[in-house]
Amino acid sequence: MCQIPTEDHPISPHDSAAPSSPQRPFAAPHEPLAAGRRPRLPRDDDFYVPVTRFEDAAPGTVLRSRDVELAFLGFVRQPVRAVQLNYRTVDLRGEPMVAVTTVLLPDRRDADEPTPIVSYQCAIDAITGRCFPSYALRRGAKALGALPQFEFVLISALLAEGWAVSIPDHEGPKGLWGIPYEPGYCILDGVRAALSYAPLGLRPDAPVGLWGYSGGGLASAWAAEMYDSHAPELNVVGAVLGSPVGDLGNTYQRLNGTFFSALPALVVSALRHVYPELDDIIDGHATVEGRAKLARLQAMTTVEAVVRYMFTDMGAFLDTPLEEILAMPEVRRVFDSIRLGQSPPSIPVLLVQACNDRIVAVDDIDALARTYADAGTDVTYHRDRFSEHMLMHPLSAPTALRWLRERVEGRPVDENRRRTAWPTLFNPATYRGMIRLGAIAGKVMSGRPIPRRELSELDR
Hints:
This protein is an alpha/beta fold. The chain has 2 domains: 287 residues, Alpha/Beta hydrolase fold, catalytic domain (Rossmann fold, 3-Layer(aba) Sandwich); 90 residues, Orthogonal Bundle (434 Repressor (Amino-terminal Domain)). The chain is built from 14 helices and 11 strands. It has an 11-stranded mixed beta sheet, sandwiched between helices. Strand 9, helix 12 and strand 10 form a beta-alpha-beta unit. Helix 3 packs across helix 4. It is globular, with a radius of gyration of 21 Å.
């Protein structure tokens, strides 16, 4: 087991995550589709509850499964087969816990080749279960302001490639946004669960890709960094890390008091659940009003929090200047522990970052790219000189899909594309890809099936 992180023994991604007791087989109960039934929030849904003695199972073991209906924005039903898996994984401290992933299957698959699977990490960026993909993507979900609902168009683009998609609740059952390591465990064990669940018909040797943007990019980066130590048997061929928030400490200081001030406040609200020293500092220095506002954040969706807390100075929640709090050794140690780059990936990565990003500083991603490359990671870095944070995700999607396609096909990384700064807006391939995404978006919004993409020579 991983050790509980302390000052003398900080948590390490190389600590073993193997169960400490003998493993035993689990007969995972399956719930058939309950059409028309409104989904319950994860906190009220028995599907998320661990089964008895789940700790004895190996990481990635499926403990429960069910068929679900998905819908765009909660009400436009999607004609796609979706299965949710409750599986065994580990938390930040290496203790057994359960997580849930939603697995989607393409309409047509090659019978002779293993179906590739991409783990797509949504930008959950919240603590409330209303933003978990396993809830927000379901038909009837009440999740206004949950970002995963909008990302379903990109998830559908992966299905159109003929790939299966795993969409894990990578923040774990408590919605702990911003904590290290645990997202990697949830993601990799979610892929293990999908590949081992026989009714899905996937093969253990299937090529595996990772993709996420912003908060999803951060989670994907943790999975890429944890891959070697936690799930080396998986055939992970590459990871697309879109604006992955390389240094949350820097991000906190830069965003405080800005339009996006709710985002760092949400991270701190989550971190205090797993870092007792940070919780003690907040309890000791937060005002009564400050504690109440931090508590209210935990029930808000991402967009709701941003709107309600825009231009809020978190120093107003404290009885001590914020600069003094941030300079405390205990706080610095927490921020150091959540910084990416501690275990550079052994798989190829595509980093995507906009130079004019007002949320994630390009300097932080420059530093992460150098850290990875200096350690031997095969890094392709698209450093876009023109775009900003919100625009970069859809505009970079054609590049991400093409890069993932090349990794799935086993093609070498193109040296001519290894480091680019040419704006995606000026690239003709972007517009070909955006036309395709526009057609997919139209089908998603109208609830029509999405045919599998037929590749042209231009695509290849």
